[in-house]
């Protein structure tokens, strides 16, 4: 079998199927059941009866921050920043971030940028493997400044400016740990009623944290996908979640993950395990790149939204459920007018 190339993960998507707004109710979306030989069109509220008592549902409890800032350089030129990562404090009064910056001409190191006509940030340098990020120093705690002056970092394919609706709906109901610049979108469908139904069904739940970076939207620019390099993202899989996975496995239950970010965190933590254990607690960065041929260790089922053509997430779901199966499901979804991407519908997949 030949190695996959970028074109293998392409598909035709009518522009009008890209969801610009969420459904009226969180759980009012559709669910494409792709676990069998024939796809089945369902409602998301059908999910509890598709899972079994004793299964473990794992969420990403990251919280989206208002990471988008508008500002000006000392010359008056416009700047748009997207804060990728808030750095741990190096000492009293040190508040630093890494950010993507867009401007007609990049700000020079040692200069200042004034954001939201409210505060200045000093440009300390360039960071990242390709130098694409700017190292900035804020005058106060970055999260507080972003909450007050920032905008919801909507994906580039959502064309409206962020609104109060986006502040509420581009955030999961179980968001706890601030740090993401993009929502773990498969989890946006869950509301209290669905969570209650899952509990009545006898499912257990656990959480990881993975702070989603802007790299999730970066295109793959090489035809040989093996040459692509992922941006790293910070994640944590705690002991309680590891214990829940071990107990589920021992009892014969399935590990069902909500979203590709959760899958990436768990499979990254599995790399830290000894031969005796399937997974171990871990905190740190991951740049794991999952493509067809990847050996999964933890995850049995995946709830995920529909992803961009030729994206790393298309490669991940193809690795998980099989390339032919996934491409057939996408053709079905287009034909049945499913809603795509962050505010769109979802599907349920089983590991091949």
Structure overview:
The chain has helices at residues 47-50, 142-149, 164-169, 192-201, 239-250, 260-270, 312-321, 323-335, and strands at 30-33, 40-43, 56-60, 62-64, 68-72, 78-86, 95-103, 112-115, 119-127, 133-138, 177-180, 204-210, 233-237, 255-258, 282-286, 301-305, 346-350. The protein has 352 residues and is α/β, with parallel strands linked by helices. It has a nine-stranded mixed sheet, with helices on one face. Strands 5-6-7-10-9-8 form a six-stranded antiparallel β-barrel. Strands 4-11 form a two-stranded parallel ribbon. Helix 7 (312-321) packs across helix 8 (323-335). The model has no long low-confidence stretch (mean pLDDT 95).
Write the layout of secondary structure elements.
Blueprint: E1 30-33, E2 40-43, H1 47-50, E3 56-60, E4 62-64, E5 68-72, E6 78-86, E7 95-103, E8 112-115, E9 119-127, E10 133-138, H2 142-149, H3 164-169, E11 177-180, H4 192-201, E12 204-210, E13 233-237, H5 239-250, E14 255-258, H6 260-270, E15 282-286, E16 301-305, H7 312-321, H8 323-335, E17 346-350
């Amino acid at each position: 079998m030949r190695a996959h190339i970028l074109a293998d993960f392409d598909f035709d998507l009518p522009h009008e199927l890209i969801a610009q707004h969420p459904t009226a109710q969180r759980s009012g979306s559709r669910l494409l059941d792709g676990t069998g030989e024939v796809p089945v069109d369902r409602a998301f509220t059908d999910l509890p009866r598709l899972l079994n008592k004793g299964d473990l549902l794992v969420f990403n409890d990251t919280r989206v921050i208002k990471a988008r800032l508008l500002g000006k350089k000392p010359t008056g030129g416009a700047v748009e920043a997207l804060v990728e990562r808030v750095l741990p404090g190096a000492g009293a009064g040190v508040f630093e971030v890494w950010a993507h910056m867009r401007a007609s001409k990049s700000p020079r190191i040692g200069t200042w940028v004034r954001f939201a006509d409210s505060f200045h940030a000093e440009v300390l340098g360039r960071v990242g493997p390709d130098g694409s990020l700017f190292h900035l120093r804020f005058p106060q705690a970055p999260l507080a400044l972003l909450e007050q002056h920032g905008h919801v970092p909507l994906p580039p394919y959502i064309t409206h400016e962020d609104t109060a609706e986006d502040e509420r709906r581009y955030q999961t109901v179980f968001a706890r740990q601030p740090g993401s610049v993009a929502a773990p979108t498969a989890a946006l469908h869950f509301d209290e009623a669905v969570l209650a139904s899952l509990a009545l069904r006898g499912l257990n739940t656990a959480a990881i944290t993975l702070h989603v970076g802007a790299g999730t939207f970066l295109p793959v620019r090489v035809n040989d996908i093996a040459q692509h390099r992922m941006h790293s993202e910070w994640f944590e899989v705690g002991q309680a979640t590891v214990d829940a996975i071990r107990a589920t496995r021992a009892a014969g239950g399935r590990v069902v993950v909500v979203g590709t970010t959760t899958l990436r965190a768990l499979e990254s933590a599995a790399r830290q395990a000894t031969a005796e254990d399937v997974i171990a607690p871990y905190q740190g960065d991951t740049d794991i790149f999952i493509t067809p041929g990847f050996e999964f260790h933890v995850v049995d089922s995946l709830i995920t939204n529909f992803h961009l053509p030729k994206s790393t997430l298309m490669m991940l779901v193809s690795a998980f459920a099989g390339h032919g199966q996934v491409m057939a499901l996408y053709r079905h979804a287009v034909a049945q007018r499913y809603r795509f991407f962050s505010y769109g519908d979802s599907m349920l997949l089983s590991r091949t």
